[in-house]
Each structure stands twice: as structure tokens, then as C-alpha cells.
Give the backbone structure.
Amino acid sequence: MDIFLQQIINGLVLGSMYALIALGYTMVYGVLNLINFAHGEILMIGAMAGLTILRVIESVAPQLPGGVQLALAIAGAVPVCVAVSLVIERVAYRPLRNAPRLAPLITAIGVSILLQTIAMMIWGRSPIPFPQLLSAEPVNIAGALISHTQILLLALAVVAMAGLALMIERTRLGRAMRATAESPRVAGLMGVDANKVIIATFAIGAALAAIAGVMWAANYSTTQFAMGFVPGLKAFSAAVLGGIGNIYGAMLGGILLGLIESLGAGYIGDLTGGFLGSNYQDIFAFVVLVGVLTLRPAGIMGERVADRA
Amino acid sequence: MRQDAVAARAEEGLAMLQVSGASKRFGGLQALSEVGLRIMPGQIYGLIGPNGAGKTTFFNVITGLYQPDAGRFALQGVPYTPSAPHRVAQAGIARTFQNIRLFGDMTALENVMVGRHVRTSQGVFGAVFRHRAAREEEAAIRARAKELLEFVGIGHYAGRTARHLSYGDQRRLEIARALATDPLLLALDEPAAGMNPTEKLALRELLQRIRADGRTILLIEHDVKLVMGLCDRITVLDYGKVIAEGPPAAVQSDPAVIAAYLGASH
Amino acid sequence: MNHSFAARDPRRVRAGLAALIVVMLVFPFVASQFGNSWVRIIDVALLYIMLALGLNIVVGFAGLLDLGYIAFYAIGAYTAGLFASPQFASVIESFVNTYPAIGEFLVWLCGPQIVQEGIHLSLWFIVPLSALLAGIFGVILGAPTLKLRGDYLAIVTLGFGEIIRIFLNNLNGPVNITNGPQGINMIDPVRIFGVSLAGEAGSGSTVHVLGFSLPSVNAYYFLFLVLCGLTVFISVRLQNSRLGRAWVALREDEIAAAAMGINTRNVKLLAFAMGATFGGVAGAMFAAFQGFVSPESFSLTESIAVLAMVVLGGIGHIPGVVLGGVLLAALPEVLRHAVEPLQQDLFGRVWVDAEVMRQLLYGLAMVLIMLARPAGLWPSPRPEDRPEADHPHGAESVGEVKA
């Protein structure tokens, strides 16, 4: 039973991060019908920016408490990620707004590679350790362990998702985003500036990814130029699982995928008689992706994308 | 020879296309409700009705683009399930589209050659080795395609990219492509849409030539004059239901039809 | 976009081709004067060209964006790895240790020589076997994607590519099939009519044939050149055929294609299968050439690299794809030889090494081409060969099927 609870906790932690990243994918897809392939790299940029900020703090004010340093890292990572994301939107995606769907996808792949390469040039190829900022003493909950970093992670994720939900439901911008996702033309006729909505969408997604990036690095205590790619793909699977274009779907899908991966990795050995081990963990996300797209492409909560088949 | 076979079948009373009880629902909308019709070989049959009546939906159902919720379908007496468009084409129904769906980047000739796909068979082996049978088939495809382009009147545009043809010529090309599948029934979705009177006259003449060639035509059209002058029989749809059926004169004076087109509900 | 070439004078085209062939035949002898590395670079480039041509069938002809294409390269390579190296002996041994029933059966089936030394099929078996296995996987991996829209199809194929790589990386336990991250080495070089293209032992990688001797890389060069030529030939034949037209129709308008009687499911699967077989053959050659394979060589980066070649050169246009392959496969290596020492001289250190340059080139290629010249560097002069990327409103102008 201990293992089960532990896996649940691990799954929730992992899932929260997936959810934060998945939101970025789903919002952009809802509004632009585009898979922002480069979104995973935003996660990486968040982590690397956070790392750099911590290094700066290390040299000017190393006595600051770990929590404050972490907060500063996040606060600094967010604008960096937002800026990068908006530049990408402006330079690489906007010119291709009317191009057939494959063109922006190919461009997005290219951007993803470029970002990774630039990161490789700036921070090098090898993994760089991310400092331990919060207490290393794990908290014991009914036999399962959870670290302070993970608790903070969960808290941040809940706050961020709640905030996003509130914004979407209650504010003008949120309404505008929902309207644009349903039908950009009609929204335009109602006075919604599509470009502003799109910019806001990218910015919010990037901010969430920045938080996820710093916390990911903090959780695993490591960063690397390629760290965003696989989590990005998995988060996309999560978004599809929940129902691409649907914000609550992305949250649900993210958590679910985290749980599936965690429980799966924990029990796969038993399930396959020892043939497959936890080293196959990465496969789950892809299996889920293929499964959902084959069996129920609209995802759990259904596609809420404009009728643009 | 085809004419005789068609006439013979007509004598037997065997319908070219027989549909009964076709129904299709989209969420809350009943797009088709127990629609049926019977087209005899060699007829030009019209399907008319106000906008949104379900005419194109009907087309999509009989050609397998949509799965019907209910209905019985038979082509030349042989029942078929409209499950997949390519199988329907194989069975012998070819169609054109309301919004013209040509292969824009291919030449006119190549578009029609694609139409021959369903009646030919060369695959990878033939493509790579180009043995005698493959070469002959390819030559036959090309020849037939040229022939059909001439037949519809755009033979001189064979090498022109389809996208660059005029609207009227694109419509003819679509018809030529459909004819290339050697269909028993040619289903045309608003072929005269957007045409000027001269073009419509030419279209009418083309359709009559197609019929003289032994084919059966099912036609969705809005142009009343064209339909009345061309069709042997007409079915009228409104809100997914059949409201009238018969020869043009009868349909034209049917009060239900007049109400549907002019009625307050529209 | 207007890409009309001046009326192609057949004599000029023939003269151009002849010149090209002469250059290609003479190249290795000239390059050998400067050491083996240049020829080796072109050898690898030729393999990439085969891959690009294979992917071109899937992406260029049929319009299916396959981001997991490298999986077929891997399957071909590992086929050679399993059936032309000592590895199978380890496989059998592993089965004997872990699943004795199967293990003993294999021992009985294969006989003592194989148990001792592994399977060593010759080129003439390996190539068709790789092609066949890759083709089968092409169908298996393509089947679930048949109903998917373009971008979803891309992601799913990407997922498949990763799944294959993960399996290759982990199938060293409980039974050892692929030898995991270490990969399989001691793969047999290509042997044609008894002559090994790696050269006989102790000859310093020199191949002696018919009284001539040439370095091993040169021998492979000619083999790969022939295979590449064959690939080009088959591609051209496929393009100008009933099947090729069906692929383009599928790409242009799937609904209309189906309405005209094209069995879209079969045509898509054929595209996957044909593309996969090219990849598989290239993979087997890669394994034989390099002598070892490991999962590292078959990452997503490689899939994207091949896609970049197709996109850069000219999606759907065979000469363009070859150009893209040459540029993106050879150029980074050429740059490495030139630019690294230059940076060393100028800056005292290498800021941008070959690997980074390679990645930069791929990324820039894809972004810039899509933004500035979506049809590629050398697009088809015949507009009907060019897929939608070039004219955004292609699909929209031809309209939708309304209810």
C-alpha cells in the first residue's frame, strides 16, 4: 500500500507539471489550430533562465533564503519565457496564419530545434545541476514521502490553474479567448481583436510553462538543453487525452497522464511478468496518445475547437 | 450498344437507382427523413428544394460520404451499403461537388486520368517495371482521358493546371473526371451554379449528350428553367422530407412545392 | 510562384546529366588524394539521400507528415545487426538462460554453428529481408494513422518512432535481443561475389577486385551510388504512374480522391510501406558500412533531419530532395573542416562546433524555407507536383462538402 500511495503522490506531482504545460498547448491549439511544437522548449528556457538567475543571486546575495531565491527565479523566468514565446509567435507563426496546417507545424519543429541549439550554445551540452533551495527533508505522509519542493509545486499548480480558470470564466479577456476559440471570424465581428487574444494566449501559456520549468528543474535537481522536448510531447498527449482545445481537459489530462505514468512505471513489471520494466515509462504517454486518437479523438472532455476541419 | 442495354433494362422495369427510407440525423437536426426515389436507366432525374433541404446530404449519403441512419439502397437492382465512397464509385455512382473539388495542382488531363483509377489495376510492380500490360494500360488511360476532355469541350486545355481554368471549365472538368470512372449513375451537385446563360445552355447540351451516351443522371439544381427543361422526373425535398415527385410540369404546379419555395417559413 | 525553366532543351539536359555522371564517377579518385574523410562524408550523404527519397514518397507524394520515419532506418539496420553478425548467438544464449524452453528450441533449430557464431546472411538476403521487415512495419505503424488529420498524424508517427527507439534501447533484458544502449557491433561488411567491401583483414581497408585496388570507402561509394540511382529510378517511375497520381490526388483532396474510387486506406498504407522499404535498405547498408549500430543513431533528431532535407530541397520534387540531402548531410561536415579551424584561429576556441552547426542548419532550414520559400530550394517546375505548402489557399479554393 505504501508503494501505491507513493506512486499516487509521484503521479500527482508529475501530473501537475504536465497540466501546466498542457494548458499552453491546448490554448494555442484552441485559438490557432496549431500544435506549438516549440512549447516544450519554453519549459526548458524557463528552467535555464531560472538557473541563470539563481547563479546571479548566488554571486550577489547568497544569504537569501531558499524559498525567496526560488520565487525570484520563477519571477524572472516568466518574463523571459513570455518574451521568447511572443517573438516566436510574431516571427515564425503569424506569417503562416493562412498557410495549410503542415507549414506552421514544420516551422514549429524548426523553431524547437533552434531553441535547443541556442540553449546548447549558451549553457553547454552537459546537464547542469539545479541547486537544492528548499529543505531536503522529505515530509512523511502515511508512509509515502513528498519533498518540500514537490509540495510547493503542487500548491503553485493549483493556484495557477485556479487563477486561469477564474480568468477564463470571469474576465473579458477570458471571454474573448473562448469566443476566438469557438469562431475567430464571429469573434472578430463582435469586436474581439484576434491578434491581441492570440498574444495573450501565448503569453499565458508561456508563463505557466515557465513555472513548470523552474519547478521541474527544482524537482529533479537538474537542467539540460534537451530537457523540454520529451515532457513537451507528453504534455501534448495529456492535452489530447483531456480534449484538445479544452482548458479543463488539459488540466484533467495532465493529472491523469502523470498518474498513468507513475502507476504504470510502478506496476508494469508485475503486469508483464518482468518482461517490461520501469525503463519503459516513457512509452505510456505515446501509447495513450495513439490510443486516444484512434479510439476517441475528441478526448475525455471533447474537442472544443472551431469548426475548421 | 450501350443505348440498347439501357433501353432493355428500362423495359425490364429495373431501376438504375432505388433508394427508400433514407434518414440521417446530425445531433439535433434531422437532415433527411425517410427519403426515397427511383431513377430509371437513361433518365435525367432532378432533385430540387430550397436551401438546406438536404439535397447535398442526400448525395453524400448515397455516395457513402455519410453513413445513413436508415435506408435501403440499390443500384441496378443490386442492394448496396453506402459505407465507403470508393466502393460506391466502384459500384458505379460518380459525383461532382457543389463547391468543385478538383485536384488543383494537377493538369486537366491528369485530373481525368485519376478518374480512371477505379477501372484500372496497375500497382507498384507495373509502375516500376513498366511491362507491356502496364504501358498499354497507361496509354489507354491517357487516351480515354483525352477523349473525355474533348467530349466535355475542354480538350485544348489538357495541359493546363486545373486551378487556372475558368470556373465554367472547372465544372466541365469535374464532370469529365466523374465520367472517367465509367459510372452507371452520374450525380451532379449544382453543376450550373455560377454559370451565365450561355454556359448553362452548353451545360444542358452536354448533359443531353451524356444521356445519349447511355448514362443516367441525377441532378441537384437551383435553376428552375434548366431543371424543368432537362429533367424527365423530379423529386422535391424540403426540411429533409420528400414533398413532391413527378414530371416537371406536375411538380411545378404542385401547391406544396410552391409553398415551400415561396412560403413564409423561408 | 513562377518557376518556369527555359524550354528544356533535351540536348542540354542530357549533356548536364552526362557531366554530372562523370563527376560522380571520378569524384572518389580525386578526393582520395586528400584522405578518406571526404569520400566517407559522401557515403553517409548517399545513405541520407536514400532516406530522403523514401520519406519523400510519404510526405512529398502522399502528403503524410511522418515524423517517425527513422524507425524504418533502425529496423533495416538492426535486421542487418541480427542476421549478419555474432549477435544472434548472444540472443540464443540469452534465451537459454532466461526462457530455457524457447532457448533450447532455438538451439535445436539453428544448429551449433549459429549458436556459436550467430547468423551471417549475405547481402543478397539481408537487403530484401530488411526491405520486407521495414515494409511490414510501415504498414503496422501506418495503420492507426489512417483517419488522422495532418498534424495529429505527425505527432502519432513521432510517438511511434520514439517507441521503437525505446524498445531498441531496452530489449537487452530480460532477454537480450538488441543489446540495449551498447548496440550491436561486428556487423558483417557487404560482400559482393566473395569480395568484402571492407577489404580483407590486414589490407588496411583496401579492396582488391579485378586487379584494381581501392579504399574501402570508395568501394562503398560506388555501391551506394548504384543504390541511390536505383532509388531515384524507382521514385521517378512511381511518381509517373497510376499509383503516383493516386498519391497526389490523396494529398490534394482526400474526399474527392475517395469519391473517384481511390481506396485511400490502401494507397496510404502503400505510401508508408514503400517509403519504409527505402529506409530499411538504407539502414541495412548503414549497418554494414559502419559495422555497428546503436539506438543513438535513430533518435527523433534524425527523423527531423531527414524531414529537413526533404523540405529544404523541395517537397515532392525528386531532384530537389536529392539536393536537400546533399546539402544537409554533407554541408555540416564540410563546414566542420573549414569553420572549426577558422574559429580556432580567430577566437582561440571553437564557439560553434560541428554538431551545433548541423542542428542550426536543420532548424534554420525548416523555419526559413517555410517562411520564405515553402516549395523548397528546387521546387518542381511542373506545378502539379508541388504540394499545398506552396499555395496556401489550395484547399480552400476548392471548397468543402456541405451538409
In short: The CA atoms of residues 77 and 223 of chain A lie 14 Å apart. Chain A touches chain C through 47 residues (CB under 8 Å). Chain A is about 70% helix and 5% strand.
